[in-house]
# Entry
Amino acid sequence: MGQDSFDLGDDPAAGHIVKIAANILVINTVEILMEVFTFTGKNGLDPKTFADAITKSLFATPVYKI
# Structure
C-alpha cells in the first residue's frame, strides 16, 4: 500500500484525522479538475490537450493523471 510510515504522535485518532484530511484533498482536487475542464472546454480548448499539458508539467502526479 503506502511507501512510508509516519509517526503521528501518541493520539490514536491522529491517523484518522490524516486520512480524512487526505480524502478532503482528493475530493477537492477532483472537483476543481471538473471546474477547469469545463472552463477550458467552454473556451475552445480540447480536453485532451489540456489534460496533457497539466499532467506532463506542474501536475505530474497520480491524482491528476488518473
User: Anything to note?
Assistant: The radius of gyration is 16 Å.
